[in-house]
Specification:
The chain has a domain of 48 residues. The chain is an all-alpha fold. It is built from three helices and no strands.
C-alpha cells in the first residue's frame, strides 16, 4: 500500500474516531444534565417533605392545644382518673395520694415514738 493511501486510511479512521468521541461526549453531557435535573428534583422533594413535616407538626400541636382547652378534655381526664382509682381499688393497690398520706402518718408516728423514747430515757 502506498504512503498516500495509508495516510488517507489513517485520516479516515481518525475522523471516525473523532466522530465517535464527539457522539460519546454529547451522550455524556446529556447524562450529566439528566443526573443534575434528577438531583435538583430530589432536593426539591426533600425540601417539600421537610416543609410538610413542619406544617403537620405545627398543626398537630395547635390541635392538641385547642383540644386541651376544651371542657371535653377536662371531663375525659377526670373520667380517666376516676377509672384508674377504681381499678387500683379493686386490685387493692394504693393510689399515689394514699401512699403520700400514709408516709406522712408514718413520719408523724416516728416523731412521737422518738419523743416518747427520749422522755422515757
Amino acid at each position: 500500500m502506498s504512503r498516500q493511501r495509508k495516510t488517507m486510511n489513517l485520516n479516515g479512521r481518525f475522523e471516525g474516531l473523532v466522530g465517535l468521541l464527539t457522539g460519546v461526549e454529547k451522550e455524556a453531557e446529556g447524562l450529566v444534565r439528566r443526573v443534575v435535573e434528577r438531583a435538583e428534583e430530589a432536593r426539591e422533594k426533600i425540601l417539600d417533605r421537610d416543609l410538610l413535616i413542619r406544617e403537620a407538626k405545627k398543626n398537630w400541636e395547635d390541635l392538641a392545644t385547642r383540644f386541651q382547652a376544651t371542657d371535653l378534655f377536662e371531663r375525659a381526664r377526670e373520667t380517666a382518673r376516676q377509672t384508674k382509682d377504681q381499678v387500683l381499688s379493686v386490685l387493692s393497690i394504693p393510689s399515689q395520694d394514699e401512699v403520700v398520706r400514709l408516709s406522712r402518718k408514718i413520719a408523724t408516728l416516728e416523731q412521737r415514738v422518738n419523743r416518747l423514747t427520749r422522755k422515757a430515757a
